[in-house]
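Hi C.,

You asked whether I'd gotten around to modeling the 114-residue construct. I have! Everything is below, sequence then structure, no commentary in between.
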Amino acid sequence: QVQLVESGGGLVQPGGSLRLSCAASGSIVSIYTMGWYRQAPGKQREFIARITGGDSTMYADSVKGRFTISRDNAKNTLYLQMNSLKSEDTAVYYCNLVRGVTYWGQGTQVTVSS
């Protein structure tokens, strides 16, 4: 069983930055593809970014150039650095890990508002 726990969300003004973390149980962060998704009220969950075991990254067009996905293998933690935040980035952010099945964390709320 894989457990993922997100943290780092909060309230930030437009143009600000936040770094989300996703702590995984076990030494698995470096092996499997992990990603970030978000879900805004009334909308479907959408892909934000992913990183493979081979360090290949991919981003949604809406966040490209503003968000950066990375991981610390020693800490078994996935990160999402979010810069130049906009009000439309407001959502619950989820991390996931694909190992045969897809595991999800519980989510962390990000609110971008002045």
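If it helps when you're writing up: The radius of gyration is 13 Å.

Thanks,
B.
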